[in-house]
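step=encode ok
step=design start
structure_in=
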């Protein structure tokens, strides 16, 4: 049994409390009790005590859309790559990278990413993977890394026709095999979905194959209208916009995550809402790719379940929140925009998304919820309570504020020291693998 106390505890439960001198009791993978530190320490006098030292105790963060395979792109310079548009970025960088990834490269990309997630207080990761240089076994390699480091994760492989029918079928098979494995897993730490790249790289035949190999409840994870080329392709080939095409192919629904949705119109938003399809916003990636910004404020107004991701740009969810907050103000020329909508994406809606797949309640500190808890080294210089803690988080915290991370009741980092993880060995292996990958890419 472990107690985490002596801090400002944000519950994010139905009562939405801030408990000064708060404490949470964990025993195994779930939270046992929440209350006052002094009272709980007296009640459980023999338990291990983690001292928050006046910091903030809060639920672990969730990343609703990541790309682990992008980890080895950091610092990578590809000869002759000078993209002028989004398609050139995809083909020249990301598809070039994933065509050279081996399964072992994928494993170490995952080790680096999950390690970084722990350090930034992200306890659950929805990942959308691609490694057309090594398809079979790639999701299992990621899952092995997640299990080794103890991170909760939901995985899929992005099916695409871009490298031919044989590899598309291999990608579908990888998803199907992984979903089957995840369904038989009893830990509630790993889940599987059917991954799809984007409409413009998927034929109707391939969409049908994906549908046929997706068990009920598994759902789809797909990029939607990230760039206008996706829209133009759908209009030209099928005479309909992307969301309409996905609806007609039975891809949408309550267990489907649509990433980006930048270039969607009102009718498409109506379909997303009516099908209860999830949307995940990735602000930094959208800005970096110069593809535009989705109509998130309008989606929120319509009641669409809108979460927040990073698209592989970072593993710091606080960073993604900060950028989302200001970009919508900037685009809409409205300083009042995004104050409530963006925190809701990260702290409320990402938990709702997570709870559509995982059995243990995520994103709250209450009895019976997942023991996914983080402590931030944050001492507010102004009053902090339930009415304003989101503003304190937005302006006062970053991933580097996290000092302690607990996932599924297991301490993964304490006082900024990783527990049971040899970070030096992981990073040394990643440098070795990434250097070899860069050499293969540039010698082609």
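sequence_out=
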């Amino acid at each position: 049994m472990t107690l985490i106390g002596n801090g400002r505890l944000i519950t994010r439960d139905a009562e939405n409390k801030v408990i000064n001198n708060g404490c949470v009791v964990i025993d195994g993978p779930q939270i046992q009790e929440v209350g006052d530190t002094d009272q709980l320490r007296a009640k459980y006098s023999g338990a291990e005590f983690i001292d928050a030292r006046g910091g903030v105790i809060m639920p672990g963060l969730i990343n609703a859309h990541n790309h682990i395979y992008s980890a080895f792109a950091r610092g990578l310079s590809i000869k002759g790559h000078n993209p002028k548009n989004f398609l050139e970025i995809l083909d020249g960088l990301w598809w070039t990278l994933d065509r050279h990834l081996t399964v072992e490269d994928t494993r170490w990309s995952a080790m680096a990413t999950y390690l970084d997630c722990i350090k930034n207080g992200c306890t659950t990761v929805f990942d959308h993977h691609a490694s057309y240089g090594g398809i079979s076994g790639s999701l299992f390699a990621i899952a092995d890394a997640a299990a080794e480091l103890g991170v909760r994760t939901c995985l899929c492989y992005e099916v695409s026709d871009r490298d031919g029918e044989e590899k598309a079928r291999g990608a579908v098979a990888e998803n199907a095999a992984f979903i089957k494995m995840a369904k038989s897993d009893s830990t509630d730490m790993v889940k599987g979905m059917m991954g799809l790249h984007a409409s413009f790289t998927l034929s109707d035949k391939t969409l049908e194959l994906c549908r046929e190999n997706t068990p009920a409840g598994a759902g789809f994870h797909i990029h939607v209208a990230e760039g206008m080329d996706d829209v133009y392709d759908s209009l030209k080939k099928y005479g309909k916009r992307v969301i309409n095409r996905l609806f007609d192919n039975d891809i949408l629904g309550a267990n489907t995550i649509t990433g980006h949705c930048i270039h969607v119109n009102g009718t498409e938003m109506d379909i997303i809402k009516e099908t209860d399809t999830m949307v995940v916003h990735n602000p930094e990636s959208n800005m970096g790719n110069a593809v535009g910004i989705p109509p998130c404020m309008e989606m929120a107004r319509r009641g669409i379940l809108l979460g927040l991701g990073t698209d592989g740009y970072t593993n710091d969810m606080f960073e993604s929140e900060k950028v989302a907050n200001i970009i919508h103000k900037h685009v809409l020329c409205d300083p009042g925009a995004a104050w409530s909508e963006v925190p809701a994406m990260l702290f409320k809606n990402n938990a709702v998304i997570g709870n559509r797949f995982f059995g243990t309640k995520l994103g709250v500190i209450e009895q019976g919820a997942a023991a996914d808890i983080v402590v931030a080294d944050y001492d507010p210089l102004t009053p902090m309570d339930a009415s304003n803690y989101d503003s304190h988080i937005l302006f006062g915290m970053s991933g580097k504020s996290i000092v302690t991370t607990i996932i599924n009741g297991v301490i993964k980092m304490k006082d900024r020291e990783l527990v049971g993880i040899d970070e030096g060995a992981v990073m040394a292996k990643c440098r070795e693998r990434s250097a070899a990958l860069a050499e293969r890419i540039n010698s082609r």
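step=design ok
step=annotate ok -> The two ends are 54 Å apart (CA to CA).
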